User: Which sequence fits this backbone?
């Protein structure tokens, strides 16, 4: 069995290389017949020319030396094996056999396993019906604004094993380049112009879904089942890509400036909050001082003031002259009331 997953060639090329036609000019059976016939011819020719020592004749033929007799047996065995291969075909797992009768495609397929066919008349083409990837070539399209768009992708597909004979009869083994590539090319050029260039990247999944549905419907008539489609790369013209890059740089710069302005705004708000806090603290301190002064003024009665004044006099003062009818030289109560 050939590992198709490791084969980089297109699907139709891989299928062609696995075609097997028993009884054909290049088939293994013909090769075995040729080898066996040559061995038999050499054995008989050696005996006929006398190079093989003959003692007696049996049935009109000279007796063969043991070495040439072994060669004759080997040639017969090889030809017999080649004959068996003309009516026995092994279909590998994950494949089916498309049968032709003298070149006419029969409406049946052979499942995986050992199959018996009619020698010479029937030939079998081995077709892979497993899920296979098919890469698309780059497709040029245009957006809604006629901006150039280039797309590449991959389609996973498999062939309906029951109807593989119909695909082989209608299209052949090179169906990928005949029906898959043109269908995908037409779809991309039909759908992409419906989208603005700025929406193509964001609508990638939508385009992919539409492509899977459209190609699945288109290829179903050839019995090709679309499993999934992947848009691996979407490219624009160099001028547009440069414009996008410049726009992204400008947007990044705008975002940076916005962040700087936001940071400065926050710092200014912090400074305002601090100033308001300091002003409020000053007001509260002033109010507290005023309340304290008011309470102090209420507590300063005439006897308290007199006592305080006397306590502040120097210890050396023993006699003080005051005007008649007055206790002090100044109105202490008036000074206290005048104080803020």
Assistant:
């Amino acid at each position: 069995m050939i590992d198709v997953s490791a084969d980089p060639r297109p699907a139709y090329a891989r299928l062609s290389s696995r075609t097997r036609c028993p009884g054909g000019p290049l088939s293994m059976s013909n090769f075995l017949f040729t080898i066996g016939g040559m061995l038999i011819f050499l054995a008989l020719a050696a005996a006929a020319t006398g190079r093989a020592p003959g003692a007696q004749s049996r049935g009109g033929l000279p007796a063969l030396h043991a070495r040439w007799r072994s060669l004759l047996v080997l040639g017969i065995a090889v030809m017999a094996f080649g004959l068996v291969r003309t009516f026995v075909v092994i279909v590998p797992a994950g494949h089916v056999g498309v049968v032709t009768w003298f070149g006419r495609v029969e409406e049946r397929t052979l499942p995986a396993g050992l199959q018996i066919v009619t020698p010479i008349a029937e030939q079998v083409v081995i077709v892979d019906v497993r899920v296979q990837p098919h890469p698309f070539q780059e497709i040029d399209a245009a957006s809604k604004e006629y901006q150039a768009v280039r797309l590449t992708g991959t389609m996973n597909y498999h062939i309906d094993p029951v109807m593989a004979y119909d695909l082989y009869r209608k299209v052949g083994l090179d169906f990928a380049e005949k029906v898959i590539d043109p269908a995908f090319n037409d779809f991309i050029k039909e759908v992409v112009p419906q989208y603005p260039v700025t929406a193509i990247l964001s609508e990638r999944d939508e385009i992919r879904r539409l492509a899977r549905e459209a190609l699945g419907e288109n290829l179903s008539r050839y019995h090709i089942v679309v499993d999934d489609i992947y848009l691996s790369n979407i490219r624009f013209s160099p001028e547009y890509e440069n414009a996008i890059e410049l726009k992204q740089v400008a947007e990044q710069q705008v975002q940076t400036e916005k962040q700087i302005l936001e940071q400065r705004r926050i710092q200014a708000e912090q400074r305002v909050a601090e100033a308001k806090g300091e002003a409020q603290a000053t007001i509260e301190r002033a109010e507290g001082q005023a309340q304290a002064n008011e309470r102090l003024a209420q507590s300063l009665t005439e006897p308290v003031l007199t006592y305080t004044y006397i306590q502040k006099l120097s210890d050396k003062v023993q006699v003080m002259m005051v005007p008649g009818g007055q206790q002090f030289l100044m109105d202490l109560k008036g000074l206290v009331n005048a104080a803020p």
